[in-house]
Amino acid sequence: MPARILIIEDNSANLELIEYLLKAAGYQTLAATDGARGVQVAREQRPDLVLCDLQMPVLNGYEVLEQLRAHPLTRLIPVLAVTAFSMPGDRAKVIEAGFDGYLSKPIEPEQFVRQVEQYLPGNMIRSPTKG
């Protein structure tokens, strides 16, 4: 069964690109365009992984993470920050906040799926590059 990956991203171009890349690699995607809706989808659908932008309306990425970690149905789901923040110290700040990983924008299509797969259990990896 392919992994189900929730993308919480308010920028439609970024959302479309991420969905396209993940679907092309064989993953199922769920999407939300603001943080509050993302938390709701995560609780209802319990995805295998969440990719979350940091700057979003309603709830920002840090608030999304806080709510996911506080709820018993979502506290163990890995959450990756996908963000344009790339100043020195940003990665450390994201990890210290409790995110499981950090992917920077702009997305590099050739590397993106491999980067995401590092946070999936081996039996959920569907990319042709993994056999």
List keywords for this structure.
131 residues; Rossmann fold; 5-stranded parallel beta sheet; alpha/beta; 5 strands
Which structural category fits the helices and strands?
Answer: alpha/beta
Order of H and E elements: EHEHEHEHEH
Question: What's the CATH topology label?
Answer: Rossmann fold
**CATH H-level superfamily title:** Response regulator
Number of helices in the DSSP assignment:
5
Q: How many individual domains?
A: 1
Mean pLDDT: 91
Low-pLDDT stretches are: none
Largest sheet: 5 strands, parallel
Helix content: 25-40%
- Strand tally is 5
CATH secondary-structure class = Alpha Beta
Q: For the largest beta sheet, what order do the strands appear in spatially?
A: 2-1-3-4-5
* Relative strand content: 15-25%
Distance between the termini: 15 Å
CATH architecture: 3-Layer(aba) Sandwich
Shape by Cα distribution:
globular
Gyration radius, to the nearest Å?
Answer: 13 Å
Provide an overview of this structure.
The protein is an alpha/beta fold. Helix content is 39%, strand content 18%. β3 (49-52), α3 (61-70) and β4 form a beta-alpha-beta unit. It has a single domain (4-120), classed as Rossmann fold, CATH 3.40.50. The model has no long low-confidence stretch (mean pLDDT 91). It is globular. α2 (35-45) packs parallel to α3. The chain has a five-stranded parallel sheet, with helices on both faces. It starts with a strand and ends in a 14-residue tail after the last helix. It has helices at 12-24, 35-45, 61-70, 90-97, 109-117, and strands at residues 4-8, 28-32, 49-52, 79-83, 101-104.
